[in-house]
């Protein structure tokens, strides 16, 4: 696969040694320094994506806010960058909230999502003073009303409503259809019941409505359908006292995993969301709520590149050639989980012509541990370094210790400098919580 800059971090290039260079750093030098497998994140790409979202949305809708969806990948260094760029944060667990708070991220810029937040998580969120709790169930309403004591209420909340719009992505990452564990459905009457309950609640102040269709969404039209469906549904509640102060059509914006399937620009997403929001707000008699979007994948996805070393090579003539790497489903479960597709380049011989079709397999004890099936690459030898772009989102964040393999380290590169933002896990780290 020839090197194609459009799916690698912004300033990636090939140097005179024919090595891949990310964020001004020679990938082969990074492997010598930090080992393999390795994840590399480019700070310039990360910051530039943050800025693009903030600028494109605020240019078209002045009262808008961008929350980084931490589930895509969170660690203290990322939290600091996102904070410096003026984004808020969407968290979905006590763990994500703890990392954000311990990194100094302002609680007043944090929204707490999730379809089954525990009593302890809600207690923690209230204690640190998150900005909004995005309610997903009647169970959560009861927990909150039970937990909120007088000095802590009213708590600002939003509710998540499912618009029953299909964004045409993988079923496992489709979240806004009727048959979903997320959100209050309109069709069952639950969304109406939840709104009426909250409008009367003394302890919970319903400041806004949220929906999230799924991810990654390569089409623009589902956003318009979602906005229209939700605002039309909400309109009759205005006379029942609904004061829509915030409106959030979620995240889900796609990134380029394959160089022949690039996503719409951030501007296009911003246009369709802001135009449809303005249109239906005005047509249906709403005021001017703050508009919130929650990109995760599209902030960190392109910034991250996974680096592996080739080990065993097994050729089955006429069938398939397996090239095994030193990582796999433990650091990136997406191909096994969603049949996600990736491209790769050989970082130590980046410009060589593609010669043979191989399958890049992982080192985990599962036949399904395949990172890329049937990809045309230059001839590979043991010891070659493989780089898989667009690996920044939902790879390290979904990593596991399957087969008790330690999770890889993460290096942050920035215009020629590099530093680890996560160390390689050790065998001792993995045994830390075990008891004999
Ligand atoms: C409520 C909510 N907001 C935002 C996101 C972020 O999605 P993405 O990373 O695709 O932008 C998700 C992802 O599942 C989500 O559930």
| Number of H- or I-type helical stretches | 12
What's the pLDDT, averaged over the residues?
96
Structural class: alpha/beta
The biggest beta sheet reads: 9 strands, mixed
Q: The CATH topology of the largest domain, please?
A: TIM Barrel
- Percent range for helical residues? 25-40%
Summed up, the domain count is 2
Name a few traits of the molecule.
single chain, 436 residues, alpha/beta, Lyase, Ornithine Decarboxylase, Chain A, domain 1, TIM Barrel, nine-stranded mixed β-sheet, eight-stranded parallel β-barrel, 12 helices, 21 strands, 28% helix, globular, binds pyridoxal-5'-phosphate
Structural features, described:
This protein is of the alpha/beta class and 436 residues long. The chain folds into 2 domains: 5-35 and 303-431, Lyase, Ornithine Decarboxylase, Chain A, domain 1, CATH 2.40.37.10; 44-298, TIM Barrel (Alpha-Beta Barrel), CATH 3.20.20. 28% of the residues lie in helices and 24% in strands. It has 12 helices and 21 strands. The protein has helices spanning 27-34, 43-60, 76-84, 94-102, 119-128, 138-147, 190-200, 221-234, 266-283, 297-300, 334-338, 427-431, and strands at residues 13-14, 20-22, 25-26, 38-42, 64-69, 88-91, 110-112, 132-135, 155-162, 184-185, 204-210, 246-248, 290-293, 304-316, 320-325, 345-346, 356-361, 370-377, 385-388, 410-414, 417-422. The strands form 3 sheets. Strands 4, 14, 15, 16, 17, 18, 19, 20 and 21 form a 9-stranded mixed sheet that branches. An 8-stranded parallel barrel has the order 5-6-7-8-9-11-12-13, surrounded by 6 helices. Helix 2 (43-60) packs parallel to helix 9 and helix 8 runs parallel beside helix 9 (266-283). The chain is globular, with a radius of gyration of 23 Å. It starts with 12 loop residues before the first strand and ends in a 5-residue tail after the last helix. The model has no long low-confidence stretch (mean pLDDT 96). It binds pyridoxal-5'-phosphate.
């Amino acid at each position: 696969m020839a090197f194609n800059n459009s799916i690698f971090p912004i300033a990636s290039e090939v140097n005179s040694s024919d090595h891949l260079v990310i964020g001004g750093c020679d990938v082969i030098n990074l492997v010598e320094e930090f080992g393999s497998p390795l994840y590399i994140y480019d700070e310039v790409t990360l910051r530039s994506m943050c800025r693009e979202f903030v600028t494109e949305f605020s240019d078209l809708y002045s009262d808008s806010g961008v929350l980084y969806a931490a589930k895509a990948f969170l660690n203290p260094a990322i939290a600091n960058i996102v904070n410096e760029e003026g984004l808020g944060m969407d968290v979905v667990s006590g763990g994500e909230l703890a990392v954000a708070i311990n990194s100094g991220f302002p609680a007043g810029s944090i929204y707490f999502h999730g379809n089954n937040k525990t009593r302890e998580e809600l207690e923690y969120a209230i204690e640190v003073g998150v900005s909004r709790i995005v309610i997903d169930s009647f169970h959560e309403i009861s927990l909150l009303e039970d937990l909120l004591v007088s000095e802590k209420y009213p708590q600002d909340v939003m509710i998540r409503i499912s618009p029953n719009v299909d964004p045409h992505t993988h079923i496992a990452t489709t979240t806004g259809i009727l048959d979903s564990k997320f959100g209050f459905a309109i069709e069952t009457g639950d969304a109406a019941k939840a709104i009426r309950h909250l409008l009367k609640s003394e302890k919970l102040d319903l400041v806004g409505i949220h929906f999230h269709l799924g991810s990654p969404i390569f089409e623009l039209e589902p956003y318009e359908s979602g906005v229209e469906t939700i605002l039309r549904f909400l309109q009759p509640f205005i006379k029942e006292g609904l004061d829509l102060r915030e409106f959030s059509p979620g995240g889900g914006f796609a990134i380029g995993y394959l160089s022949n399937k690039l996503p719409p620009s951030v501007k296009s997403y911003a246009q369709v969301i802001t135009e449809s929001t303005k249109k239906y707000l005005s047509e249906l008699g709403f005021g001017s709520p703050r508009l919130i979007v929650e990109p995760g994948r599209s902030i960190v996805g392109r910034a991250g590149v996974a680096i592996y070393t080739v080990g065993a090579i097994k050729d089955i003539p006429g069938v398939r050639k397996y090239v095994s790497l030193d990582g796999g489903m433990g650091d990136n479960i997406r191909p096994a989980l969603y049949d996600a597709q990736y491209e790769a380049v050989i970082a130590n011989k980046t410009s060589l012509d593609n010669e043979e079709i191989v399958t890049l397999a992982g080192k985990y004890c599962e036949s399904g541990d395949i990172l890329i099936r049937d990809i045309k690459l230059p001839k590979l030898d043991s010891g070659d370094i493989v780089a898989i772009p667009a690996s920044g989102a939902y790879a390290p964040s979904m990593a596991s210790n399957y087969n008790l393999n330690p999770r890889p380290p993460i290096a942050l590169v920035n215009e020629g400098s590099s530093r680890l933002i996560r160390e390689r896990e050790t065998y001792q780290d993995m045994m830390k919580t075990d008891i004999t």
